[in-house]
Amino acid sequence: MIRYLAVLSHAFTIAVKEWQWIDSNPLLKVSKPKEPRGRVRYLSDPERERLLVACKQGGPDLYLAVVLSLSTGARKQEAMGLRWGQIDFARRVAILTETKNGERRALSLSGLALEMLQHRAKVRRLDTDLVFPGRIHPDQPLDLRTPWETALKRAEVDNFRWHDLRHTAASYLAMGGATLPELAAFLGHKTLAMVQRYTHLSEDHNSSVVERMNARVFGEVGR
Q1: pLDDT over 70 (residue 37)
Q2: The model's pTM
Q3: Would you please indicate which residues are annotated as catalytic (active-site) residues?
Q4: Which of 57, 74, 146, 210 is 20 to 30 Å from 101 by CA-CA measure?
């Protein structure tokens, strides 16, 4: 509903300002519903372990793509469209120039994802710059839909989409104490509104931070 109202309001605005068809935008008087918090589905520890095992059985392409998405928060299109020219191993980053919001973003590479990319770089195909080239058409990204769905069934992980790997990465960061600005930067969001959905996951961390602050400031005073 919110998206439809926004599009319709934009059309009326153009009709007012550019075409002078009407005198005012009638939707300015319409109360807009609140933006929904959004879906957050993330992997529990047992689910993550089972899924990674299943993805590893599904082949090196699927395993690397899932590890990369899970460790960097990259969207599926960003991960599968990654090219070697975007990866800077010295700085341990992958530079994304084409993102959903049009902003340039750097993915931090570390741990298993970095090791696997370094290994793949040594045995990469020379007829394409894609990290995940298609089998028949190496100039197009590989389609992992079937092996991904097979891995989900094998791991018995229900109600889970590839995009939820991104939610999982953000959720783990939130539970580890990352701030909302840090989460926004990690996910490449321009505002904090899109990361509000993760706030409840950091409540325990926030409570412990407050407790430590009070203990440091007040110590034994009043006892």
Answers
A1: no
A2: 0.74
A3: 75, 100, 163, 166, 189, 198
A4: 146
